[in-house]
Backbone:
């Protein structure tokens, strides 16, 4: 009887561990999104809503959520600057713009990293929406010459949302693949479209 009871107890513990692991798992079914101007690709879960455009943000991806809740999001912005800049300089310029849009944000961490085989720089921060909801974002800049790719993943700043959503947002950001041979800005393709 002890063996059966011990086996059942182990099965219950393993089921709980697997359920927790599944809750934090990164979705495996992904679809690749192509920038309309062929400057990059990025992959998102198949359940997410995606809008692409020739204007910034070039990609807007939103997670499915129950009614009344705020989705997690990933936005991609592409800017052609007047001069070449480093990924860290890109983050600094983005912070300057953020001060006008998000007057109150708190930096959690910053660090260099690699995205799509290229040097990148990340900036994690929390901020408040106009409605007072606390959000957490991870912003990553990748640069190729004077072209800057800024990817921002955002979710709610509750322990459950951060634990559940940040691994997925980080994974999406890490699938960014800039195209170093993309067309010049004056020969971009047709107007925006939805996917």
Residues:
């Amino acid at each position: 009887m002890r063996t059966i009871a011990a086996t059942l107890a182990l099965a219950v513990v393993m089921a709980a561990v697997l359920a927790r692991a599944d809750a934090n798992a990164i979705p495996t079914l992904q679809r690749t999104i192509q920038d309309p101007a062929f400057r990059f690709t990025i992959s998102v879960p198949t359940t997410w809503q995606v809008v692409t455009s020739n204007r910034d943000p070039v990609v807007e991806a939103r997670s499915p959520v129950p009614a009344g809740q705020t989705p997690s999001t990933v936005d991609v912005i592409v800017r052609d600057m007047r001069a070449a800049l480093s990924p860290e300089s890109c983050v600094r310029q983005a912070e300057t713009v953020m001060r006008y849009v998000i007057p109150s944000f708190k930096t959690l961490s910053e660090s260099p990293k690699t995205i799509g085989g290229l040097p990148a720089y990340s900036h994690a921060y929390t901020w408040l929406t106009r409605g007072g909801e606390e959000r957490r974002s991870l912003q990553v800049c990748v640069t190729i010459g004077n072209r800057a790719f800024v990817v921002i993943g955002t979710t709610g700043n509750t322990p459950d949302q951060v634990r559940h959503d940040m691994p997925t947002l980080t994974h999406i950001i890490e699938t960014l693949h800039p195209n170093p041979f993309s067309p010049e800005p004056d020969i971009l393709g047709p107007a925006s479209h939805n996917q």
